[in-house]
Amino acid sequence: MTTETTPVPSAPASAEPEMLTGSGAIIRTLELLGVTDVFGIPGGAVIPLYDELMTQTKIRHILVRHEQGAGHAAEGYASATGRVGVAIATSGPGATNLVTAIADAYMDSVPLLAITGQVFSTSMGTDAFQEADIIGITMPITKHSFLARRAEEIPAAIASAYHIASTGRPGPVLVDITKDAQQNLAPFIWPPKLDLPGYRPIVKAHGKQVQAAAQLLLAAKKPVLYVGGGVIRAHASPELLELAESTGAPVVTTLMARGAFPDSHPQHLGMPGMHGTVPAVLALQESDLIISLGARFDDRVTGKISEFAPTAKIVHVDVDPAEISKIRMADVPIVGDAKDVIADLILAYADAAKGAAPDSIVPDTAEWWTYLRGLKEEFPLGFTEPTDGLLAPQYVIQRIGELTGPEAVYAAGVGQHQMWAAQFIKYERPNSWLNSGGAGTMGYSVPAAMGAKVAEPDRVVWSIDGDGCFQMTNQELATCTINKIPIKVAIINNSSLGMVRQWQSLFYDGRHSFTDLNTGHGTAMVPDFVKMADAYGALGIRVTSKDQVDDAIKLALATNDRPVVIDFIVSPGAMVWPMVPQGVSNSFVQYAKDHAPTWEEE
């Protein structure tokens, strides 16, 4: 979008503007923007809004049990559909409880509209009851914020926030509305004028830059398409598939981009990074050209940045100019929407190939592919069965994916189970994999799955969670039961904070300080997740042996009248492999793979 005044949906014309309270204006604006579902919990500063939400709208309000749950549910809703997710909270602690979800959405470019109540405008700055400067608190983790002190300011504030959240690089925008602004009457004027003079996201890339990228791609002997979450946010998966097939280049998809390119495609090498596949990691490391599409050269992908892909030229495509050359200097920087840029690059590459001199030699990538296929054969993803008689978590997650299929949505928490879910479930379509990538937020999974199920009621939605993550937001099972949101929860219960425990095993001489949770092993189960599920009105199942895994998953898939919680008791000794330790070169992945059994024994 390049204009200062942005068109918004129109409303039926009337001779006189309708008089609405500020709360009524909030609801009417959301309706006109196409919002159908919101997540929130009331409090003193949003009572006027909630009073009208009950009687004046067809918008579905999901009453959560914690504001963080509202934020993550709105994230899951947005990530499963591409539409803006909406979360509502009261002032003070209600607003601050949203902060984690707002930060999470900011890191992962999730379009989120956070609406918070504020104390009366006459009380602001007096340390009034439940007053917090939520705009100041969230300034570093929002695309923008608005404060509405008067009822007549509300339509433009919310419409502007919605537009900013959903355009350019998506992200969270906060609208803070005083209680008196919600109560007072004002004429509802639609469409409002959106005065955003400093907001001009660049969508169309410079043609010469795209042509330069095409020439590099044509000349490369060892190219790689490095695909990030921006491709999913831009709905650019069809264009990516066409680009890959027209150029023959291998594709790697980051943690945030799983599903952007089909796992079953022969050109897909898997996920790069700390816990990526050996072919994906070494393809980037040894390439002579990296086409980065909506990725930001995150430290978990690059390892030691000074030693990352030392011989590669870089084409960096991103809608956010601040990301270009931030970490790795781009030889060809391209600012633009991934969908448009990839489409232009396909045409530019075809034109460059046609225009090549008849006697010119187009570099042959056959040798590159021979090497990469050899890596795929030599280093397939796999796991060893535990020796302690407990379940292999990788097997459990693999069977969930195989029995459920690629049309489902899988929302993971953070930790070992997150990495196994990224590795051992096959993703064939975008928006099927939801997780907290940049912020690494424990507690994301259950409310995100809940939000995804509200957005996509006809899809199976799994929350793949750890016993540590689950205990942070499991209260939203009550929300699911009461609102008939039948998500499936798989607790990968290793009775510990597994990823921290893995680092302690590898790098701290096995000193497992404060990572044992006592949730699944021995005589004590605190809490007993099956009893907890029953208390929340969900179906609770415990699985302790391999022969029970499939039956439990099939029962969960057949149960659609309530949430399901399966407590899989897995081995605490299982580790995520491969692993490139933090701060070392990605060339270390070969060593890591070769030495994994030794480390696991430790």
Automatic annotation (TrEMBL):
Sorted UniProt keywords: Amino-acid biosynthesis, Branched-chain amino acid biosynthesis, FAD, Flavoprotein, Magnesium, Metal-binding, Thiamine pyrophosphate, Transferase
Catalytic activity: 2 pyruvate + H(+) = (2S)-2-acetolactate + CO2
Cofactor remark from the record: Binds 1 Mg(2+) ion per subunit.
Domain spans labelled Thiamine pyrophosphate enzyme N-terminal TPP-binding: 21-135
Family: Belongs to the TPP enzyme family.
NCBIfam families: acolac_lg, PRK07789.1
Protein name: Acetolactate synthase
Organism: Cryobacterium gelidum
